[in-house]
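Changelog note: in this version the structure field was regenerated for every chain. One regenerated record is shown below for reference.
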Amino acid sequence: MNLTKPILRVTAIAILPAIITYILILYFSVKDGIDPVLVLRDPIQACDYPTIVGMISNIGVLMWSSATAICLFSSTSDLVSNIKSRQMLLFGGLLSGVLCLDDLFLLHDRHIGQNFIYVTYAFLATFILIKFYKIILKLDGIAFLLSVIFLGLSILSDKFQESLFLSYSTMQLYEEGFKFIGIACWLFFWWRASRLSINETFDKQLSILTE
C-alpha cells in the first residue's frame, strides 16, 4: 500500500498549517512581551476562574462554528445537487465563520469599528435574504427571520444601552440573551437548510433510479 500520497495530503492540509499557526502565535506573543504560557493555556485556567465564567459566550462560539462547519461541508460536497442551494450554504458558512471569529476574538469591540462591522453584517444578511429568499422561505423562513430579529435586538441593545436609562448589568442580560437565542436560531436554520437540501438530492436520485 502506497502511503506517500495520503501522508503528503494530510501534511499539506493539516500538519503544516497547524505548525505555522502555532509558531506565528508564539512568535508574536514573545514579540509583544506576553508570556507564551498565557497564550497556550485556556483563559479560565490562566486567570484561575471557575469553569462557568464565560460559558454563555463559549457556547455561542461553539454554535457559530457548528453552523460554519455544517454549511461549508454541505456546500463543498456532492450531497447537495442544487446549485442555488449550494451557493446559499456557502455564503451562510462564510458569514457564520466571520461571526464566529468576531465573537471569539472580540473584533467589533477591540479591533474594528462597531458601526462599520454592524452595517457590514446587516448588508450581508440582507444580501443572502434577497438573493436566496425563495429557497429560505421554502426551507424555513421563520427560523431565518427569528435569528435576524434576535441578533438585531442584541445589536440595538448594545448601541442604545445608554439611552434606555438601565444599568450596564441589566442591559448586558438583555443584549447577551437576545444574542444567544439569535445564534441558536441561526444554527437551527442552517442545520435544517443543509439537511433538507441533502434530502432533496437523495429524493431526486431515488426518483431517477425508480423510473
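Spot check on this record: Residues 51-210 form one domain. The mean pLDDT is 90.
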